[in-house]
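User: I'm preparing a small set of examples for a lab meeting where we compare how different chains pack in three dimensions. I only have the primary sequence for this one, and I'd like the structure in token form so I can line it up with the others. Please keep the answer compact; I'll paste it straight into my notes.
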Amino acid sequence: VVGIARTHTTMISPSSSFPLVNAALRPHDSKVLATAAHPGGSKRPPAQAILSGGIAGGIEICITYPTEYIKTQMQLYENLGKMGPIACAKETVRTRGVLGLYKGLSSLLYFSIPKSAVRFFAYEQLKALMVDDKGKLSTSGTLLAGLGAGVAEAILVVTPMETIKVRLIHDQLSAAPKYKGFVHGVRSIASEFGMSGIYKGLLPTIIKQGSNQAIRFFVYGEIKKLLEERHPQKELNPLETALAGAIAGAASVFGNTPVDVVKTRMQGLSANKYKNSWDCVVQIAKHEGVKGFYKGTTARLGRVCADVAIVFTLYEQINKVLDKLWQKP
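Assistant: Understood. Below is the structure token output for the 329-residue chain.
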């Protein structure tokens, strides 16, 4: 979940102006020139980034989760992968009802806030280390900071979250589901597979999240910069923010869908048929060809574009409200 906030006049370039989780930064660190602030100039409370990101992420997930569910089904089952996203959605509604499209939603909701917090914290820490003496972050610095943020969230939050989500969805698609909801599913998965089972697919998840955030931070920043140059005296409106977010989301989808497919297979209930992530790559290439690495792309494209566009827009709008509520008199 990436958010954008206006900053002091000493801020870094528009291509890297992202919200600062400043609680963990040393006040005396001369390299930290960009801090998220209220319109009046005071620093935003550290909890604001977490709260804004959590609310935005929760709303976004509720809106776009059906496409994530369909994408996961298409990647887990070859027959569903051949049906196409629309046919797959119709089949799900026919057999499980509309609510069937929301199976596994709770696992993403429960992890959305810590995922956002880890991402923002890691990005800003890395950014602070790489800005130059003028407080500007280079293109390579933006990519590396985004990569590091993605790796951090993959290890601390996303891998267990994705494993639980994929196995809950996989279980619900089986003839005799054994998990009776999120809590029971988590307990059962932890008991049956242990910590190593929850962290199954860690490597492809690290690669996926790292490349995701590197691409999204970079592309969003560049698009935002171009839009701001057109109207330097005006703030971007919600439609412009959403457009930049959607383009950034699309770029990340085409850049790492093969990794997402491997990650999904390694975190499914049938993951034991693969020796490791590389063996999964070999098996997909052997039995399904290149197209096998792009299953669910259409469904994922719709979800991710909407995801990034919604989160960017909501994050900024929520922050504007919180700025007024928390602004010191």
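A couple of notes for your slides: Confidence is low (pLDDT under 50) at residues 1-43. DSSP finds ten helices and no strands in the chain.

User: Perfect, thanks.
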